[in-house]
Amino acid sequence: MTLTEPVRRIAEQPVVARAMARLHETDALTIREQCMLASIAAPPFGEAVRGEWLETRFRELGLDAIRTDEAGNVLAECGSADATSPVVVAAHLDTVFPAGTRLELRTEGNRIYLPGIADNARGLATMLAVARVVRECGIATDRTVVFVGSVGEEGIGDLRGVKHLFRPDSQFREAAGFIALDGTEGRRIVCRAVGSSRHRIVVRGPGGHSWADRGTPNPIHVLGSAIAALSKLRLASTPAWSVNVGRIGGGTSINAIPEDAWCELDLRSEDPGTLERLEGLAFDAIRAAAGHVNGDGRHRTGTLDIEIVRIGRRPAGETAPDSRLVRIAKGATHFIGRRPELVASSTDANVPMSLGIPAISIGGGGDSGGMHTAGEWFENTSGAQGIERALLVILAAASRP
After folding, report:
1. Domains of the chain with CATH codes
2. Among residues 231, 200, 222, which one has the least CA distance to residue 287?
3. pLDDT < 70 positions in the chain
């Protein structure tokens, strides 16, 4: 087993050993809280009720400086009175599921089925479990640990919670580290941030009757041509990139030429330069599709207009593999008997990474599947060990070198 020195020093403390034992002894409570959290609807821009539940739980645990900020993030602190360079631990409150989604828990064998049970009720339950044993066992840290239930991590939330946390005038710009608790698993360490550029594309035209106004340019036809062109975009295979049209709509009737059509476009890459080039190619393809129709003499009347509106931008970034925080996470992963894997993803950690603040995202243990679907499930396989890893990472990060 390979342990880095900060992890070894923390793991050898008797008080930490007691805390890890308590994680196993109270594992049933952690699962109950996870199920309770997943049963509270937290649709995009509707996280307040779940946030109120979390704030109440923070108070019951006796944490300090509990508050809800202007963005809706729920914060609490513990540890050192020196808050000048805290360690921020965040788990996002929101889910991908819209308001009205049926949240009905069912079990099959060892699996719990419930939308959001893994993403991110598991991250929130892990954060609470860590806070509970730290408080219960009286563990002291060199740096203040700030626990955050963040808003706006999913979809078009555009990371608004962590963007608010790390706004230019925020104390958290001086954070010693940032750890996102997101999802399950006990092996992966997200240290590379996949950036994204998200836009709503609207094509507008005069519209009309499908027969009487035949020949009028059709926004849906043009949008379809633009999407086909997007699917054929090509860049070098490295750095990795992706293009996705996630939603589309328009028109009023089968026998009407629509006045407008729209789609939502998600462009991604780990490399900021690649993302910028991809954005330019995509916009050129979209405008070319409309320009081709507008210049086609076969269309009797009217022209098409294109509107491209940015609806989100997640910055790319990286925490170096040899940084102290990544080495701590690797050591804690070895401690629970797993082989660490450094990966890229899009999480709350994107924002601090892009600012040069050491940041990672890790799961809270257990196994899961069906993410972002009504069939999402969680299985508590070695779940407490995953929370042990989170505890060690947080305590080691909050210790001074």
Report:
1. 5-193+316-397 (3.40.630.10), 195-314 (3.30.70.360)
2. 222
3. 1-3, 81, 294-302
Q: What is the largest CA-CA distance in the chain?
A: 83
How many Cα neighbours within 13 Å face the side chain of 75?
A: 20
Pairwise CA distance, residues 236 & 380, whole Å: 40
Say if CB 87 and CB 80 are below 8 A apart.
no
Q: Do 25 and 18 contact (CB within 8 A), yes or no?
A: no
Q: What is the pLDDT of residue 276?
A: 94
What is the pLDDT, as a whole number, of residue 187?
97
The model's pLDDT over 335-355, given as tens digits with 9 standing for 90+, comes to 999 999 999 999 999 999 999
How far apart (Å, rounded) are the C-alpha atoms in residues 367 and 377? 8
> What's the burial of 107, exposed, middle or buried (CB within 10 Å: 0-12/13-18/19+)?
exposed
Cα angle 158, 163, 168 (rounded to 5 degrees) comes to: 150
Q: Which strands, in side-by-side order, build the sheet including 195-204?
A: 241-250, 260-269, 195-204, 305-314
Q: In one letter, which amino acid is 56?
A: T
The DSSP secondary structure of 83-144, one letter per residue, reads -SSPEEEEEE---SPPTT-----EEETTEEE-TTTTTTHHHHHHHHHHHHHHHHHT---SSE
Give the Å distances, CA to CA, from 129 to 16, 58, 133, 278, 389: 14, 11, 6, 42, 12
Cross-strand bridge partners of residue 270: none
Using DSSP's 3-state secondary structure scheme, residue 251 falls into: coil
What is d(CA 360, CA 193) in angstroms, rounded to the nearest whole number?
9
Angle of CA points 332, 320, 194, to nearest 5°: 100
Distance CA 87, CA 84 (A): 10
The packing angle between helices 27-38 and 48-60, to 10°, is 150
d(CA 115, CA 103): 6
Rounded to a whole number of angstroms, the CA Rg of the chain reads 24
Sign of the four-CA dihedral 34, 36, 41, 46:
negative
